[in-house]
Amino acid sequence: MKIAFIGGGNMAAALVAGLAGKVTPGANIHVVDPNPAALEALHAGHGVTTAPSIDAAVSAAEVIVLAVKPQSMREAVAPLVPLLAGAPHAPLVLSIAAGIRSADLSRWLGGYGAIVRCMPNTPALIGMGIAGLVASAGVTQAQRLAADQVLKAVGGTVWLDDEAQIDAVTGVSGSGPAYVFYFIEAMQQAAVELGLTAGQGLELAKATFTGAAQLAAQSQEPVSVLRERVTSKGGTTYAALTSMEESGVKAAIVNAVKAAAARGKELGEQMGRDG
Ligand SMILES: NC(=O)C1=CN([C@@H]2O[C@H](COP(=O)(O)OP(=O)(O)OC[C@H]3O[C@@H](n4cnc5c(N)ncnc54)[C@H](O)[C@@H]3O)[C@@H](O)[C@H]2O)C=CC1
Ligand SMILES: O=C(O)[C@@H]1CCC=N1
Question: What range(s) does the Pyrroline-5-carboxylate reductase catalytic N-terminal domain occupy (predicted)?
Fold first, then answer.
């Protein structure tokens, strides 16, 4: 499979790392980015071909991944219009941008219909990503399978029926790794304030996340039961969870996820209005 990336930043690098040499040889991946440093790193690390701007190699791809910031998308995809119109096969356009609606993207691409919108996350870098995907009406079954194959190479996939749901996916899993890192940072800070070294705190916090996440993933029991099993009545965990409840931590997390989803929706509305 030939895959082209428009944008070779953080998320594209995570996807390329999972795809190169697994789904397709690195030489079958073409990355377009005006930033030479981004291209050099991807070429050196994975043997991908590169270009500073959209070129003929992009039109040879079966899947074109759009991986630029939402605010740069309209300008970035303009050079694709003649390429897509003249392509002998119909490449799948796979957008990973937060917020950008398929209808707006289709309009910017001159009415192109084969678009899958997707929200991956950075654990794709180690093959442990999770992505939500939604296909536009013009997407064939084969193109849907191609999108699924690309994302499955770097983790799991969850298909959605309604494009509006992708803002919720953005809030939960697209932005989610940052919440986990934030929690780890907080646990490390507490460890240091309680007299451990920063290194000890980090090791304990990271291993606790890895272990608890694996336990939740492998267990057949509800997460709430796993939580209760750690929590002796009147014990230490009870003291911690009571403190969290009193501080409104759960409500704050729910609000934070909703804020991310709302920002995704707002970005889409802004981009749609701007043209
Ligand atoms: N970083 C993350 O965790 C996730 C990001 N996303 C989405 O992925 C997209 C990219 O995000 P990041 O990789 O984090 O951003 P980034 O800033 O690391 O990468 C964007 C890249 O696009 C390049 N670029 C700018 N204009 C261009 C153009 N006209 N043609 C080609 N390349 C161009 C930039 O030089 C940069 O290397 C965004 O739309 C974001 O919403 C989605 C899921 C997770
Ligand atoms: O923060 C962002 O806008 C991107 C989308 C999801 C994760 N990172």
Answer: 2-99
